[in-house]
Amino acid sequence: MMVEDNKDITILSIESSCDDTSAAILVNNVVVSNEIARQHIHEKYGGVVPELASRAHQQNIVPVVDVALKNAKKTLEDIDAIAYTRGPGLMGSLLVGVSFAKGLSQALEVPLLDVNHMQAHVLAHFALKPEEKRSLPQFPFLCLTVSGGHTQIVLIKDHLDMSLIGSTRDDAAGEAFDKAAKLMGVPYPGGPLIDKYAKEGDPLKYRFPKGKVDGYDYSFSGLKTSILYFLQKNPELIETNLNDLCASIQYTIVSSLMAKLKKAAKDFGINEVAIAGGVSANSYLRTSLVEAGKELGWNVHIPDFQFCTDNAAMIGVAGYYQYLNGEFGQLSDKAVARAPISLK
Fold first, then answer.
1. Backbone phi, psi, residue 145, to 5°
2. Tens digits of per-residue pLDDT, 266-286?
3. Does residue 301 contact residue 141 with C-beta atoms inside 8 Å?
4. Which residues, in sequence order, are bridge partners of residue 10?
5. N or C terminus: which one in the chain shows less Cβ crowding within 10 Å?
6. Burial per residue of 150-183, b for 16 or more beta-carbon CB atoms within 10 angstroms, e otherwise
């Protein structure tokens, strides 16, 4: 399928990889609406329960799409293509979005755009609000993508040309935040609360070990174990020094992330550096990136808060560039729980 010159492409995008049901309407890479239905049922379990997540997606997906269309002042007849998250993610959750997207694409007779969730996090940097003008990352650039399920350093040579150069060998950084929070009795999701409490604490009060792995890879399982043993020996600190504990844990995670990112930027000779994913909303990580940029001469790119956590706008942006490149999905494409940075 060829794209006509100067033709605006209206995309309905759907994200259902974990516990947020999201739908967005984009015209090219401009986000006209971006709606998210969050699932609060998981809070009492201290983490996402896959079966409950998939059931909630089934309840939420039609209303969320309807709201996205109404807020964008669009109808289904205006849609040129449907983008959806094919993976990675929770299989039950993915299947809801995949099935809905396929059925709607057949009904509307519009093409499908199967999107890699991790590529979409990176391409969220190219999502524009209406009338927004800002500098976009220039190729090549490095992106540290950090979430509850992934921690990766990605080299981006073009919108759809990405290479994974580093990743976690065990726990993701977001998972380390949440597990540390659970050990301290901080409610789920713990990452944002650790960020909040850390602002009032001393990041150098307590020392925790950093994972020692070669290259640009990460390891956070040892940190989790270290925190567990430390709290078993000093349980009273949760009551008396929670802010210092949170600040020290956050410092250990963020400084580990930044050390490998600095190494990669130096080794590859790249000064365009970005962060993405749910943990990119962490205030200390954002501040650390800005400070590193000033120190090392980087052009720093930090996503808008609404594009950090899982959202359909980032899926739509990735779908838009796939549309321009003629990379369309098929009805035979299956959801994939695990996937490299590219499904192609």
1. -100, 120
2. 999 999 999 999 999 999 999
3. yes
4. 27
5. N
6. bbbbbbbeebbebeebbbbebbbbbbbbbbbbeb
Strands 30-38, 20-27: pairing kind: antiparallel
Look at the block and give the residue holding tokens 């509307």: 108
C-alpha distances (whole Å) from 331 to each of 98, 156, 212, 279, 313 are 10, 28, 44, 33, 22
What is the rounded CA–CA span in Å between residue 76 and residue 154?
35
SS3 for 195-246, per residue? HHHHCCCCCCCCCCCCCCCCCCCECCHHHHHHHHHHHHHCCCHHHHCHHHHH
Whether the CB-CB separation of 220 and 173 falls below 8 Å is answered with: yes
Residue type, 100: F
pLDDT at 32 over 70: yes
Residue at token pair 């790119």: 301
- The per-residue pLDDT for 258 is 98
Q: Which helix (DSSP H) or strand (DSSP E) does residue 262 occupy? A: helix 242-268
pLDDT bracket for residue 2 (50, 70, 90): very low
- The backbone region for 337, taken as left when phi is positive above 0, alpha when psi lies in -120 to 50, beta otherwise, is alpha
Average pLDDT, stretch 54-75? 95
User: Greatest CA separation found in the chain?
Assistant: 66
Least confident of 52-56, 149-153, 333-337: 52-56
Yes or no: say if 20 and 313 are a contact pair by the CB < 8 Å rule: no
- Domains of the chain as residue ranges with CATH: 10-129+307-324 (3.30.420.40), 141-303 (3.30.420.40)
Q: Is 298 helix (H, G, I), strand (E, B) or coil?
A: coil
- Identify the pLDDT of residue 170: 93
Residues 100/61, Cβ–Cβ less than 8 Å: yes
Q: How many CB atoms lie within 10 A of CB 214?
A: 6
- Residue 193: count of CB within 10 angstroms of its CB: 18
The per-residue pLDDT for range 257-268, each reduced to its tens digit, is 999 999 999 999
pTM of the full structure: 0.93
